[in-house]
Amino acid sequence: MAAGRGRGGRGPSRRGLIVTAVALVCAVTAVGAPGVAGVAYAGTHVPASVSAADDPAPVPASTAQLEAVREQLDTLYRDAARATDAYNAAEEKAKEQSREIAGITDRIYDVQQRLDDLHQRAGAAARAQYRGAGLPPEARLWLSDDPEDFLDGARRVREGEKAAKGVLAELTESKGELKKLEREASTRYEKLEKQRKAKDKAREKIEKQVKQAEELESRLEKEERERLAELEAEAARRSQAAWVGSGVLAGLDDATSDSARRAIAYASEQLGKPYVWGAEGPDSFDCSGLTSQAWAAAGYGIPRTSQEQWRRLHRVPVQQMRPGDLIIYNSDATHVAMYLGDGLMIHAPRPGRSVTVAGAGTMPILGVVRPDPKQPSTAAAQAGGRKGDSGKGEGQKDGKKD
């Protein structure tokens, strides 16, 4: 926006946009309150009565104001990440319920086919009894011209009656099984509907948080957005420097497993592809979509969400992590990245960004998990081979599944 555009009522000035952006931050964080004549924020005071027409000259946003915007954007995207994890979890559960319903439906079909067959057999037995006119065996013996033929027929009748009783018992059992399966299917459908509602709720929250963040950024001038990006980069550099300076990388090497190398190769091929919440490739990814698909390409099926990856995968100390391990971020495990070695990681950051490489210490680390804990590092395998063994670990003998 050109300077001076706010004069003469031709549109909002640059200062007007900055005031709007800061006011939005205050509104979201509940700093502002109705009825207050002005907004005090980050050591500045912008009177509410200042209008675009009264603005004598463009006033740049202060560093403190942009830092407040940066922090608020981080909060909004963190909330969106949390909602994305909830959406992905609900999606996975919905898929599971759908698979179970399909299995129950197949079993119901099989039982119904068996019931149809039993009904036919029961009907045949009833017709045979009708043809015997219901006469007792003694009467049929006296009326028979050939007693031996009668006795042979009597044996067949008894066998038929026994078979009929078996058919009726099996018929009763099958009907009970059918009712049980129908109740089970109904329960699964209820759970599926619950997961769908959870997905819808999470989707609404994601869209709301992302929209707020995009609106907040859109209210900044190009120069402010550039300065905001610089502040983000500087904050990341400080965090990475502090993490590396802590000595956490001392003693680490880049030796890793062959499966981890395959996972890294897959993730690296996705560089530059956009972040899209709920996406797991091939054209876009969210953070856990990238890591889960990378390890799937390496032959390991791991949980879909970052929270489940943290909960269910084998944990290793940060000081022992190796390339291919997954770094879980934030206290609520709402972000995940893949460690590459040399203090770097690859991840899908957030909406508006693409799959990229960054410092592994640029965000607060919760912990590290390893999808293939039974697979030895390449260096260890080579060392084992030099000692005359196969170089294979327990995981390679028993298969890839942990």
Describe the structure.
Belongs to the peptidase C40 family. Residues 386-402 have a biased composition (Basic and acidic residues). With 402 residues, the protein is α+β, with helices and mostly antiparallel strands. The protein has three domains: 7-59, no CATH class; 71-217, Helix Hairpins, CATH 1.10.287; 250-398, endopeptidase fold (from Nostoc punctiforme), CATH 3.90.1720. Helix content is 57%, strand content 9%. The protein is built from ten helices and eight strands. The strands form two sheets. It has a six-stranded antiparallel β-sheet with strand order 3-8-4-5-6-7. A hairpin with a 5-residue loop joins strand 4 and strand 5 (335-341). The longest helix has 72 residues, at 147-218. The protein starts with 13 loop residues before the first helix and ends with a helix. Residues 1-58 and 387-402 have low confidence and may be disordered.
